[in-house]
Specification:
single chain; Tachylectin-2, Chain A; globular
């Protein structure tokens, strides 16, 4: 694999939480982060994960969720006593039941230069089914066969699964439904068929045995998936140098075809829940073959706004673009990443001469 580096294009977030207006009256935006990305005509499109929550009262948590009311999923607020002990700001367990402290949806943002974005005031995709009752999160966009396929994490009391929506214009959206049941997430579709099949990367959520790793699956129609197989996992168990991916890993944006093979951006999390970004290279004709992987992370939380936020010490990417031929930035690969669950950063993936 070529000697890649991720270089920040700006040292400040290009989007911040306070740039986004709440979509729900009486709610507050807690975070705007982890955007999917694609090129659409002469624009860059981002689908930003926006986490909102109602204002809590003293000693209480205000939990937003969908409740089935006579067959209609309806947004409600459940008030629960705030735990007296320290707890994860994103998820809380009370009396044996687990809840998210906010509800996420996907918000569309557009830009001509890829840096300055206009953000819609209303959601592009908002939770609408009971298998999305806790929210929809962390989308990926793949342009495939003339359509933009949007995979996202659909969260409910039954855990995180993978939803699929399709659009051609980012105005009208077909919600296909859940394509992988809980517990699963981090799905990235390949942007072309390989050997006549659709392919995707996914990340099953293991329990007592094993650690979350990147898996591969294939499909005849892009909806029904099988031949699931382990692709690669963290390496910290056998080598302390890989502590940065020791807790879990997961795929980022859609794989990108290069002259060497399929380039995969993935995240790794350490035992202290610090997230970093790295690369893997898969065979062009057989993506079950891993040709190479990063030995060191390409991007780690270093700047203040990457280290402090709603969930600290996180750089997490699920969106990148490659500027097309004829564009002044032709060939450049821009990587959009969430920072501390509170904003969006931008880096460029570049190759540098091998120092050896």
């Amino acid at each position: 694999m070529k000697n890649y580096q991720l270089r920040r294009l700006v040292n400040q977030p290009i989007l911040k939480t306070n740039d986004v207006k709440p979509a729900i009256d009486g709610f507050t935006v807690l975070g705007a982060f982890n955007p999917a990305a694609c090129l659409f005509g002469d624009e860059v499109i981002l689908l930003i994960r926006v986490a909102e929550a109602p204002t809590p009262t003293l000693g209480q948590l205000a939990i937003p969720l969908l409740v089935d009311q006579e067959g209609v999923p309806t947004l409600t607020i459940q008030y629960l006593p705030e735990p007296t002990q320290p707890y994860d700001p994103r998820v809380v367990t009370i009396e044996g039941n687990t809840y998210l402290t906010s509800m996420s949806h996907l918000r569309l943002a557009r830009s001509r230069d890829g840096i300055h974005f206009t953000i819609d005031d209303k959601p592009f995709l908002f939770p609408a089914r009971m298998d999305e009752s806790f929210g929809i999160e962390d989308a990926r966009i793949t342009f495939l066969e003339g359509k933009y396929w949007i995979t996202y994490t659909a969260v409910s009391e039954h855990g995180p699964g993978v939803g699929l929506a399709v659009t051609t214009d980012f105005v009208n959206v077909e919600r296909v439904g859940m394509i992988l049941p809980p517990p699963n997430k981090d799905v990235a579709l390949f942007p072309k068929k390989i050997n006549g099949k659709y392919w995707l990367l996914h990340r099953p959520m293991v329990s007592d045995i094993g650690k979350p790793s990147v898996w591969l699956a294939e499909s005849e129609d892009g909806i029904h998936w099988g031949k699931h197989r382990f692709l690669f996992g963290g390496r910290a168990l056998t080598d302390d140098r890989y502590a940065w991916e020791g807790a879990k890993i997961g795929a980022g944006p859609e794989p990108m075809l290069t002259d060497e093979g399929w380039l995969v951006c993935y995240h790794g999390a350490s035992a202290t829940h610090a997230y970093a970004l790295a690369l893997a290279l898969l065979d062009k004709n057989d993506p079950s073959v891993v040709l190479d992987r990063s030995t060191l992370p390409l991007l780690t939380p270093e700047l203040l706004w990457e280290r402090e936020g709603f969930f600290p010490n996180v750089v997490f990417s699920n969106g990148w673009i490659q500027w097309p031929e004829g564009h002044p930035k032709a060939g450049q690969i821009w990587v959009y990443y969430g920072a501390a669950d509170s904003g969006v950063g931008l880096a460029e993936l570049v190759t540098v001469p091998d120092a050896r």
